[in-house]
Every structure is written in C-alpha cells, then in structure tokens.
Specification:
The protein has four helices and nine strands. By secondary structure, the protein is of the alpha+beta class. Strands 1, 2, 3, 4 and 9 form a five-stranded antiparallel β-sheet that branches. α1 packs across α2. The longest helix is centred in the first third of the chain and has 21 residues.
Length: about 180
C-alpha cells in the first residue's frame, strides 16, 4: 500500500512525463535511486488518461520489470503518445487530462476446471484478469467491471480483446488474476 505522499509523487511523475513528452518527444527519465521504497523498487502499473468521462489512453505493465516510478513515467508517456487506439496527445488536450494510476499486485494463476467454474470464481470489482491462449493475451483492469458487471460479459469481452471469439473455450486457456491500488483524478 502506498501512502498519500507516495501516490502524489507518482501522479506528479506521470504528469511530468506527459509534459516532457509534449516538449521533447520522449518520456521523462527518472532514476529509481532518487526515490524511496517502494517507489524505487520493482513494480507494475497501468496509467489511464481520460478527458471528461472519455478514455484518452491506457498503457501499462503486467509484471514488475523495473522500478515502480520508472514504470509510471514510461507508461504515462506511452498512454499519451503510443496508445494505438488514439492519436498522440496534443498540447491543447493537456489541460483537460485526468491521470489515474493502477499499481498491480503480482498476477496469480486461477485454477478452474471449466468456463462455468472460472465464472463462479471471479470476484467482480476486485479481480483484474489476464487471459492467455497460445500467443494471444488480453487483460482487463478491475475498473472494467464498472462497465461489464456480469462475469460472463466481462469474460466474453476479455476474449475479444485477446483476439478470440466471445464464445471461444479451450482446455488450454490460462487465466491469472491480480488486484490494484488505484488513485488519481
């Protein structure tokens, strides 16, 4: 769990990285050693950008491969300028932008014997999921439950995101769950 100062620091780093991207065309370089634990320790985060109630970009990491503060700086820049669903952020949009950060727990495998068993074991509003099928992979943050509150709908849309038909099922599907600490606005 992050305290209020640590959350504020991460939001400031995300905003600074977006501003740096507008000015210099690249993410803000941060040095993990300049930040206290847990910000300088390995961590995984998603950065979600909104304008009003509309999504404007969302990019993140599922696994902790760099310091949390570095992950936030890189993902804030990527959400603003590299999300393939949107054009790069313009200077005129910056003032209207809200930044939300989701710090992920390590993903844990979910055991299930069938699609029905998987659906029965989901925790709406709590679980973020990663679905793996061969080379295909998709994830939904727990916040997606707000728009897809029924487990069956959540899973069907997650399959679509992974490039699979919504009614697809196979014994080789793997699912991992994670939780998030979410803040910003």
């Amino acid at each position: 769990m992050l305290d209020a100062d640590q959350r504020r620091t991460l939001l400031e780093v995300a905003a600074a990285s977006i501003d740096h991207g507008l000015a210099h065309g690249r993410a803000l370089a941060v040095a993990a050693r300049d930040y206290p634990e847990p910000l300088g320790e390995p961590g995984a985060a998603f950065v979600t950008l909104t304008r009003g109630a509309e999504l404007r970009g969302c990019i993140g990491s599922l696994e902790a491969r760099r310091a949390l503060v570095e992950d936030v700086a890189e993902n804030a820049y990527a959400a603003a300028f590299r999300d393939p669903r949107f054009p790069p952020l313009s200077e005129g949009e910056r003032a209207e932008l809200s930044i939300h950060i989701s710090v992920l727990s390590p993903p844990e495998p979910v055991a299930f014997s069938s699609e029905e068993a998987l659906l029965a074991g989901l925790r709406p509003g709590i679980d973020g999921l990663v679905l793996h099928e061969g080379a295909r992979r998709g994830t939904f943050l727990p916040s997606v439950w707000e728009n897809l509150p029924e487990p069956r709908d959540f899973l069907r849309h997650l399959k679509l995101k992974a490039g699979l038909p919504p009614d697809y099922w196979s014994d080789s599907i793997r699912v991992e769950r994670y939780t998030v600490e979410e803040f910003g606005g």
